[in-house]
Design a protein that fits this description.
It is a single chain. The chain has one helix at residues 104-119; strands at 14-15, 22-31, 34-44, 50-58, 61-64, 71-82, 88-101, 130-134. The protein has 1 helix and 8 strands; from the N terminus they run βββββββαβ. The protein is 12% helix and 50% strand. A hairpin with a 5-residue loop joins β3 and β4 (50-58). It is mainly beta. It folds into 2 domains: 14-64; 71-134.
């Protein structure tokens, strides 16, 4: 997988659906079995949540792949833990798939609600520290 830094092409700026902070690009990788598409991973500076978007590279610009109004999303919830040698890692707690959502923000809210019901807690942050949202 190629995870080299991006070229000088300007990507869309993303806002974290969780805390409304600016997100930065952390990784660019090709989509499996499709060399013409790239998955761009954004990370929030404030809450360290991740968001993945798919783009089609064009000379000088990157065009986002527009999803249908009822797009599917996958939200993975993670807990930050320490290994036996003291290194920090993300431990997957649960994955929730949202079959129909108008946008990423609505998908995240639905996933948070489902995760809270699944864990029987009033706030999802009691069982997880961060999430990754993928369309």
């Amino acid at each position: 997988m190629n995870t080299r830094p991006m070229s000088s092409a300007v990507l869309t700026m993303e806002i974290c659906p969780n805390c409304k902070s600016k997100m930065t690009v952390t990784e660019a990788a090709p989509v499996l079995l499709n060399d013409h598409l790239k998955t761009i991973t954004y990370q929030c500076k404030a809450c360290h949540s991740e968001l993945k978007r798919t783009f089609k590279p064009h000379p000088g610009e990157w065009k986002p792949i527009h999803l249908s109004p009822n797009a599917q999303y996958r939200v993975a919830f993670f807990k930050h833990l320490l290994s036996s040698d003291g290194h920090k890692f993300k431990c997957l707690q649960h994955v929730i798939e949202i079959r129909h959502a108008r946008n990423a923000e609505r998908a995240l809210k639905a996933a948070e609600y489902r995760y809270e019901r699944f864990c029987h807690v009033p706030d999802w942050r009691l069982y997880a520290d961060t999430f990754e949202l993928e369309a």
